[in-house]
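If it is no trouble, might I ask you for a protein's amino acid sequence along with its backbone structure tokens?
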Amino acid sequence: MHSNISPAPINHIAISVPDLEKGIQWYEEVMGFAVVRGPAELTSNDIQIGKILQNIFGTRFNRLRIVWMSSVNNIGIELFQFMEPEQLIENKQVEYWHGGVIHIAITEKNIESLLEKVTKNGGKQISSIWELDPKKHHKLAFCTDPFGNIIEIYSHSFEQFHANR
């Protein structure tokens, strides 16, 4: 299906972590993201944003901490630590049957090196490295951050992977 509408650019991705300082350190050191603002604490009784947060997260929401980061290609990454109520920490299989966001993906030519960095810094490699197109050396692998959030690693850009197949 063809359309005259241009694709909407991705502005940012929000990731929930149970420990904001550890999350900042991990995403800076392992993924190379840069802090552009924060960390900051946001509460439900904040005059400016409190009602918005309760509208989004529900009336049980009281307090969170947040930092704003940026990737090398200027995609925003928000790390959230929910304080009240506190975030549940569960190490479980991906429940893809529930729908919703499954993973984020980054591009790194040297997948092996990044996976080594991930595992040395508390993350986990959860798949083999798969070479999908040996002629073009297109590889991918899946890992998690230390909190269980899934990250896919592509060896080439999304367009290089999927165009003209």
Remarks:
- The longest strand covers residues 34-43.
- The helical segments are 20-29, 50-57, 111-120, 158-162.
- Residues 102-165 form a domain with the 2,3-Dihydroxybiphenyl 1,2-Dioxygenase; domain 1 fold (CATH 3.10.180.10).
- The CA atoms of residues 44 and 50 lie 4 Å apart.
